[in-house]
From TrEMBL:
Active site location: E209, C243
One GO BP: aldehyde metabolic process
GO CC list: cytoplasm
Protein name according to UniProt: Aldehyde dehydrogenase
Pfam families the UniProt entry points to: Aldedh
GO molecular function per UniProt: aldehyde dehydrogenase (NAD+) activity
Classification of source organism: Bacteria, Pseudomonadati, Bacteroidota, Flavobacteriia, Flavobacteriales
Gene3D superfamilies hit by this protein: Aldehyde Dehydrogenase, Chain A, domain 1, Aldehyde Dehydrogenase, Chain A, domain 2
Amino acid sequence: MEIKEIVNHQKDFFKTQQTKKIKFRKMYLEKLRDIIIKHEELLYEAIYKDFGKSKFDTFTTEISFILNDINYYLNNLNSLSKPKKVRTNLANQIGKSSIHPEPLGCILVIGAWNYPYQLSLSPVIAALAAGNCCILKPSEIAENTMKVMAKIINENFPPEYLYVYEGGIDETTELLKLKFDKIFFTGSTKVGKIVYQAAAEHLTPVVLELGGKSPAIVTKDADLEVAAKRIVWGKFLNAGQTCVAPDYLLVEESIHEQFLETLRKYITEFKYSSDSVQYTRIINERNFQRLVKLIKKEKIYFGGNYDEKKLFIEPTLLNNISWEDDVMQEEIFGPILPVISFTNFNLVLNTLLELEKPLAAYLFTQNPEEKEAFTTKLSFGGGCINDVIMHLSNDRLPFGGVGNSGTGSYHGKFGFEAFSHQKSILEKSTWGEPNVKYPPYSEKKLNW
Ligand code: NAD
């Protein structure tokens, strides 16, 4: 069947009102949970084949994440989908006002490759929980994970409700010509613009989950041991191929040397090596070559080795970096961490204010004034004080970018809202209405 036909079938199926039933939504969320658990080993194998991601990392950053999402919606669907009563103003008495969350219809989810299960299925789960039909187009770059998702979902779900469409740029371009009720895109800012333009043709609303250069600032008032340990973990997880990984470090000059040493200590302690099954590989040759070019020999503080055959790049610290260096011109998206020194915290915030708004920002300090300035002065999607990445694991926090790093958000109730329309209903009593609003407007009425 052609994809256009499947989309039309989804639109027809949506009109049958089946997906609006809470029982129906829960039944399929449970089914998705069951097939993920049943095929867990297949999912681990596929991602290991794609970029050597370990079972432990895949469980903690992908599978458990998705299962938590499903459980969240199973537990909260009744309250999330309930109409909410609100107060009625004087001009509308006697009346009742309420807000009714309703599904949008047929959703297109376009996924990225770096957390292929989480970034594809988490929006799908929210879309289904909100009562929509959905087409998922995972990233073709992680080919094995795309195939396994297509297999387990298309064998178990009716295509008129949920369908995984395999393909790359051509297939996505074809999809983008069709009219959806919402498009949820995760990927680069460059492709985000293509998606936004295509969506505008149909006035389709979008969520764009994009990237950018996310800074981590470490001041002299930070707990340096904790900061180094958490930064090393968050940066080199998935070999740096994480949209919210700290892209570069801004370290106060007085602790610069000591902090670099502490970073080195933890990289060594974590035992990342080209033989390790715990350390993820670079996704493909193209990205490998792009990253290797960013490692300038004279700037290496630690690491810098790589193995092309294994697509392995050692965790690498670059020192004596300036804003003009190549590594500071684009999102790194790999295991290379440039470190810039600063002397004045407020000036560094001013510098960041001149740059594009990043998806994440991190601050390590115990100083309340610095925490306050970081939170109120800078604009970024979301972030942490004294940690990295972990903000997105709290489903009570919305996850999304701002400006160049994206528009819209999801996770928890925010995911449900992203795929719902809030419909307003005012119900009026048929008696007790003042006649003043109706013409003719006599002098008496005008002076009322
Ligand atoms: P990408 O933009 O290259 O690809 C994303 C999706 O778009 C894929 O499904 C791909 O098939 C499709 N695509 C690619 N080129 C296209 C084109 N010309 N026309 C139509 N569709 C096209 O991104 P990627 O390499 O998969 O992911 C890396 C980027 O995504 C990084 O910038 C990263 O920061 C960002 N990212 C953001 C988040 C987030 O949650 N905000 C999460 C992960 C990755």
